[in-house]
Design goal:
Layout lengths: L14 E4 L2 H7 L2 H9 L6 E4 L6 H10 L18 E7 L7 H19 L4 E4 L3 H13 L5 E4 L5 H13 L4 E4 L1 H4 L9 E4 L6 H8 L9 E7 L4 H11 L5 E2 L29 H10 L6
Parallel strand pairs: 1-2, 3-8, 3-9, 4-6, 4-7, 5-6, 7-8
Helix pairs in contact: 8-9
């Protein structure tokens, strides 16, 4: 933006740092980065940092770097054992996305009242959902709630972080990008209002709690469209997460309750298909209706 308005000269740049490259890729910023790089001198030092190294980032590194030295830090295999993890099944809201989002906000408030967190991060996948969840909490009397996402100006972000660290803010609704680098030693709870789309992000998120041998609690809200993501995360973590329905928000009779595969080829708790019913009828010796 500054360059396009003629307020920035890049011809004298000697060092370029590309941080959070994988996040920039997810947010669609890479074309802007490529444009900036095209304006820089060819002879320069370039540092590229990325929490993950998908093929797209590898190709990016090949374009940006000349004869690079790669330094890899081993990532934690699983989350700390001090973190208690469980899933809250979001049911009873039908298939309308607006109704599902409203149900999730209701369940969140119920869990906050039940758990009484000392402090908590509430993760959303999208910035607009950060705003919606924050406004919902504020509207329902949670005066110590705040929000944090990439569209906020830096001064407001820094002020919000300072208040969270001091305890003036106890419920921080944020996106993954905004939470990068956030270090609160005694975090009691993490709520995944949205299940992360990448299994690695799950470990990064819940790793905000349960640090330095302290206990922590991580709760993830699971809607019907997130079943596959949860199974991937469970395989990544090599564990099965307990499921629960919050009292007052139990599933309707025909809804799916996510559980382990029951061994019959279907999912336990799933409404029976027409084929299943015909198969059972044949096993009982009944005639086809």
């Amino acid at each position: 933006d500054h360059f396009e308005r003629g307020k920035l000269l890049l011809t004298g740049v000697q060092i370029m740092v590309v941080d959070e490259a994988d996040r920039m890729l997810d947010m669609g910023f890479i074309p802007d980065v490529e444009k900036i790089v095209s304006k820089l001198p060819q002879m320069r030092t370039t540092l590229l940092f990325s929490a993950t190294m998908p093929p797209e980032i590898k190709r990016l590194a090949d374009r940006f770097l000349m004869n690079p030295k790669e330094i890899t830090v081993s990532k934690p295999a699983t989350a700390a054992e001090t973190i208690k993890q469980f899933l809250v099944m979001v049911t009873g809201a039908g298939r309308d996305q607006t109704s599902i989002a409203k149900r999730k906000r209701e369940i969140l408030r119920k869990l906050i009242e039940r758990e009484q967190p000392k402090n908590a991060i509430i993760f959303c996948n999208r910035k607009r959902d950060v705003d919606v969840v924050y406004r919902s909490l504020e509207r329902h009397g949670y005066s110590t709630a705040a929000r944090l996402h990439g569209d906020m100006v830096q001064s407001v972000r820094m002020e919000t972080l300072s208040k969270f660290k001091s305890g003036d803010v106890t419920l921080l609704v944020c996106s993954d990008v905004a939470a990068r680098g956030l270090d609160i030693p005694a975090m009691s709870h993490v709520f995944n209002f949205d299940v992360p789309t990448h299994a690695d992000d799950y470990v990064h998120r819940i790793g905000r709690t349960g640090r330095a041998s302290a206990s922590g609690l991580a709760v993830s809200f699971v809607t019907a469209d997130m079943h596959g993501h949860i199974r991937l995360i469970e395989r990544r973590e090599r564990r099965y997460f307990p499921r629960e329905h919050v009292p007052g928000f139990e599933p309707e009779e025909e809804e799916i309750s996510i559980t382990r595969t029951d061994g019959t080829g279907g999912v336990k708790g799933k409404r029976k298909s027409k084929k299943d019913k015909l198969r059972e009828a044949a096993a009982r010796g009944e005639k086809k209706p």
